[in-house]
Design goal:
The protein is mostly helical and about 170 residues long. The protein has helices at about 1-10, 20-45, 45-60, 70, 75-80, 85-95, 100-125, 130-135, 135-155. The protein starts with a helix and ends in a 17-residue tail after the last helix. Mean pLDDT is about 80; it is low at about 15-20.
């Protein structure tokens, strides 16, 4: 789904109003995606994931009603681009290969730490207010997860299923 969102973002025309255009479709898809992901986290009793990642993201998407410029600036698709690391996480979970874990970590770092940190600063400049402060929570959470992944990598062998794998989750 990330590739489709990236393409949609790049081909979206500027909006003349907040209720039309591809950006609105991406926004609705993004909200639905995070609602389903939040319900999945709640059903799995992954409370830390729910509070640290899902709720701030849903609040950011929900704040579009108060800050319509977010839709005009295509923030839904700009945020959803980070989900491009998710298929690599799935591949690693299936294979347990160290090389797949390293690939996942590299993409995770680039999109969820570097890009998301840059996006938070853009968000502060372009939107401001309390959503901008909340936007900094997401890269901070991803830095924590990346450090957990680095700990796993130190003693990792192909085929391992580390006991503390849940700390390395990013979804």
């Amino acid at each position: 789904h990330s590739a489709i969102l990236c393409i949609t973002h790049r081909t979206s025309p500027p909006l003349s109003d907040r209720t039309s255009g591809r950006a609105a479709q991406v926004y609705m898809f993004s909200c639905t995606y995070f609602i389903v992901d939040t319900l999945d986290a709640a059903a799995g009793r992954r409370w830390a994931m729910l509070v640290a990642h899902h709720l701030p993201t849903l609040i950011l998407f929900g704040s579009e009603a108060l800050f319509p410029r977010m839709l005009q600036l295509k923030y839904a698709s700009r945020i959803m681009i980070i989900e491009i690391s998710t298929p690599l996480l799935t591949r690693w979970r299936r294979s347990r290969r160290k090389s797949h874990f390293v690939q996942f970590m590299a993409v995770f770092f680039l999109v969820r730490v570097v890009y998301l940190s840059w996006l938070a600063t853009q968000f502060e400049e372009e939107i401001g207010g309390w959503p901008a402060k909340l936007a900094y929570v997401l890269p901070a959470v991803n830095v924590y997860w990346f450090l957990q992944q680095a700990k796993l990598l130190v003693n990792y062998r192909d085929g391992d299923a580390p006991a503390d794998e849940k700390k390395a989750r990013s979804d």
